[in-house]
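Q: My labmate handed me this sequence with no annotations at all. I'd like to see what the chain might look like in three dimensions before we decide whether it's worth expressing. Could you predict it?
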Amino acid sequence: MSTVIVTGTDTEIGKTVTTAAVAAVALAHGRSVAVLKPAQTGMEAGEPGDVAEVRRLAGEAVTGAELARYPDPLAPATAARRAGRAPVRPREVEREARKLAESHDLVLIEGAGGLLVRLDDAGSTLADVAQLLAAPVLVVARAGLGTLNAAALTTEALRSRDLTCLGIVFGSFPRSPDLATRCNLADMPEVADAPLIGALPEGAGALPPADFRAAAADWLAPALSGTWNATTFAASLHGA
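A: Here is what I predict for the chain of 240 residues:
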């Protein structure tokens, strides 16, 4: 994999921290990494966005790129329209990703919100970017009640477009998981028809960067160059 699309089943579920963890593990294995954010919303010029957060957590060795920024915390198409600015088009994202891939071993493209959030008024989405690049998609999901349906809808949308789901990662796994959360560890792969390949602990993004980098491999499965194992993780939980 030279390019991976990172999407989510919703917003505010840990996509950026998950992207940082994937980047940190890749860097630890000696790979060069670039992170591309097609559209950063909810941020004014000069404010640190998602790319800056990935670089803070994973390391300054990560190359960061951002194509557009809009101040309103809305879907990119809506935010661009309200700001009176040009939206980001899938072909622009494709061109930048291919350019970054020429000089980096791994390019991570972090979307805004979920897979089918609109980038422009023509209805283009991150799924269109994935198709142009023929890139696998990593889905970040919530850990608790309700996540199975949202994840299944996302993976079904990927399959309907002949896109590859690399797997699902829980973006924030609680320290004291309830029954539904524990059951989701076993149910997610079957319901979403995709492997569960990681679980980041709640509050991972608040760790000191050095601690974050040291622990990142423990949160991600071998598919993401880590050591995490879903069966072992589930067995370690009280009441599992």
